[in-house]
Specification:
Blueprint: H1 2-24, H2 29-32, E1 40-47, E2 52-56, H3 58-71, E3 81-86, H4 90-102, H5 113-120
Antiparallel strand pairs: 1-2, 1-3
Amino acid sequence: MKWTLLLLLFHTHLAWSADQSKSLAGYDPVVDSIADNYEAGPFLIYDCQEKHWVCVLESYYKECAEKRLNDATNKSTHHSCAPIGEFPTKKSCFQRMLFVTTHNHGTRFCVKDEWKNKAVK
């Protein structure tokens, strides 16, 4: 009984924490569920696999950063994604995303640095 109660409290705390962070980010499930794999937020990333920019919640940004670190261990020439930065609001992130989208800056963040150096030499 004690373990069940502790697990229930822990699960409730995790669910509340996730909802609370979404609330603080101005998350609205009606408009911010932007894809099956993303929810909108103030963190800008470039998805190298799907080849597009996206403003996401912090959890997706951290996941992207972890993927990028893991990419360093494999022998491919490209990263799976690029965590670009945090913005004060979703709107400011979307504004920056519009700028970088129109200037075609995405793919340069995907090629690993050691491969860029090889191409120069």
